[in-house]
Design goal:
This protein is α+β, with helices and mostly antiparallel strands and 300 residues long. The protein folds into three domains: 47 residues, RNA-binding S4 domain (Structural Genomics Hypothetical 15.5 Kd Protein In mrcA-pckA Intergenic Region, Chain A); 114 residues, Pseudouridine synthase; 109 residues, Pseudouridine synthase (2-Layer Sandwich). It contains six helices and 14 strands. Strands 10-9-11-12-8-13-14 form a seven-stranded antiparallel β-sheet. Strands 4-5-7-6 form a four-stranded antiparallel β-sheet. Helix 1 crosses helix 2. The longest helix is centred in the middle third of the chain and has 12 residues. The chain starts with 7 loop residues before the first helix and ends with a helix. This is Ribosomal large subunit pseudouridine synthase D. One of its GO terms (molecular function) is 23S rRNA pseudouridine(1911/1915/1917) synthase activity.
Length: 300
């Protein structure tokens, strides 16, 4: 399999001899262009023949809550946004406007993309990064919700999990309370007695290890269902909680790798466009903090 194209940060580092962190900062500060366009994403890939230019004197980019580059696609039916880690998808309490939905709507209006309410069809956890979509019409929202309900949406995540994770397909019934206040799989925390209760929801995750790391593994997690905290719970119940996990780690007795957030990134989002009927696919490389953790844990 051919190697992927280098990232912008990697080319900047090669050109300048600077550290990874400094090379990435030059990108996020707006001092790097790719083929003549300012590139704020250090993880963006440089195509063959692409021209990366560093200008140390360029004016510093002052980012708002959401940059224009975060809008991966929009039309009158749907918008796809590269959600940053640390931002809520939707309000956690009534009136909270510091959310991806609110910031995306504001940015679309400023970009001349119209001002329509954004309908929620799925969510990413606050600390999870990667592509997320909203519907812009009621018709699109119904069509997209049906695709999620029928498990027709492509959702692939990358996770850094403790220990040596093996390939496995996990199929459990998730409960809102496994018996100690945490979400969990029926029969895992307490021995199962009878059938799962009515509140249980089927959850299916397929794991494929990608890269062995020091004390951890980079894992591809493919979702067939999309229950709340599904990947985090399944990995934890296997004995491989996410690096940076704060909740589903109380049963883990191994050496914990510290991280400011759970190392989980939504790599791929694919669906059938609700109006055109065409299959569309969006992929984003993991952000700088995820990449830095990978470099920190490299075995070579």
């Amino acid at each position: 399999m051919p190697s992927p194209p280098p990232t912008v940060a990697a080319v900047v580092r090669e050109q300048t001899g600077l550290s990874w962190s400094r090379a990435r900062k030059l990108c996020t500060d707006g001092r790097v262009t790719l083929d003549g366009e300012r590139c704020l994403d250090p993880a963006a890939r440089v195509p063959a023949g692409g021209a990366v230019v560093v200008d140390l004197q360029a004016p510093k980019h002052h980012a708002g809550p959401l940059s224009r580059e975060a809008i991966l696609f929009y039309d009158r039916d749907v918008v796809v946004i590269d959600k940053p880690a640390g931002m809520l998808s939707v309000p956690d309490v009534p009136g909270n406007k510091d959310t991806l939905g609110v910031h995306a709507r504001t940015l679309l209006r400023r970009m001349g993309g119209g001002d329509t309410a954004l309908g929620v069809v799925h969510r990413l956890d606050k600390d999870t990064s990667g592509p997320m979509m909203f519907a812009r019409t009621a018709t699109a929202q119904r069509a997209l919700a049906a695709q999620f309900r029928d498990h027709e949406v492509d959702r692939v995540y990358h996770a850094i999990a403790h220990g040596a994770v093996a390939a496995e397909r996990i199929e459990t019934d998730l409960l809102p309370d496994r018996g100690d206040g945490l979400r969990g799989s029926f029969g895992h925390y307490k021995r199962a007695s009878g059938d799962p209760p009515a509140v249980a929801r089927r959850a299916i995750t397929t794991l494929a290890p990608l890269t062995p790391l020091k004390g951890a593994t980079l894992v591809e997690c493919r979702l067939e269902t999309g229950r709340q905290h599904q990947i985090r719970i399944h990995l934890s119940e296997l004995g491989h909680p996410l690096v940076g996990e704060r909740v589903y780690i109380r049963d883990y007795s191994g050496v914990k790798i510290e991280s400011p957030r759970p190392m989980l990134h939504a790599q791929t989002l694919g669906f059938v466009h609700p109006r055109t009927g065409k299959h569309v696919l969006f992929q984003r490389e993991a952000p700088a903090d995820f990449q830095e953790m990978l470099e920190r844990l490299q075995t070579k």
